[in-house]
Amino acid sequence: MQLVENAEDQINANLKQQIAEFHSTRSPDTLAALVASEAATTDPRNRIVVFVTSSGQSFGNAQVELHDRQIDLKQRDGSQKLSDEGYVLRKKDVAQGVLIVGESRAPINEIKETLAGVLFLSILPTLVLSLGAGVWMALVSAQRVRHIESTLAQMTRGDLSSRVPHADQNDDLSRIGVGINRMASAQDASMSALRQVSTDIAHDLKTPIQRIFVLLTRLREHLATGTPETDLVDNALTEAERAASVFHSLLSIAQIEGGSAKARFDTVDLAEVLSTFLEIYAPVAEDSGHRLTMARLPDAPAIVRGDRTLLGQLTANLIENALRHTTAGSTISLSVESDQQEILLVVSDDGPGIPEEERRNVLRRLYRLDRSRTTPGNGLGLSLCVAISELHEASLTLLDNNPGLRIEVVFSKPGGGRVNVSLPE
Fold it and tell me: Which residues form the Histidine kinase domain (predicted)?
């Protein structure tokens, strides 16, 4: 039937083109002359072209009678016979009259007759039907298996909201899908409860730790400088400040994951954000012996939908991460690239990088590489970046910069589809 549809599509395209050729003519007399000239060289058994004026006068290679939506064709006196195969007709109101064009259905009928003959003469119709049914069932089953594999892959990457599409069938694949969905729901509920407990603990402990920090500060004011007690209080203040920072970061991640910031989304130019933070961190990088450069910016604004403050925090965290984990003399490059669908933000360095097997782990909360335990930080900077990326439906990826680390954040332009956070396997 595809051949028949192709033939019908071709005829309809031809008719549309023919109408377009006459449509630009506004004068009835001019159009009548054009139609008459065309009809004189056109065999009505193949193609019909007729123009009926508002007064009922007809020009063309056939006689036409219009009855509402019905078009009756008759042979014009002295003209060639019409086709016995029927016509595909189109009419259009133009130049204060009606233009009718048509093409014979002979090619379509020939295809149908040929197909009917092939089917009729086939000696293995049952085999063909059985084979078709088998292929169809195999394709449907393969598609369902792909859905299950896709759901499992997304769950492996941490997306516990993914589910296998429901199928109204009582078979093995359906039961497997139901089991996977039930397991995912249980895991999602457990993780949500765990996140909530973590958030509640962070919220409840943040205030007491802040009070301890204030009390230690007051105690420090009453101690003489250089005494052992003063040193102990200074160390306690440092640890209290680090603890408060951890709880503050945990609460920030929880708030971002809650999605409330989406209400503040507006158009943001990522290129402008990156340029601003380049100016802010350039002196810091210079003081620490680093070189902070802008590798590339698009000619036009790189517009995304998002929260400017959070996108600035994302940029700042990525820059600070590079400054913290590279040695003096290292170069940190920033860039923004844009195409028709996506905007790519990149922060790269030529430092020690992160081993491939550890790249997924460093995005976990409070996880730190062994070599990083002696450097400042709480293991939540990249976790916060992941949360901000997910909120903006962006993809954050850690790659090898040969040497060093390359962090890419891919945003969809406004109106684009969602991109899940992912890491290389």
Answer: 200-425
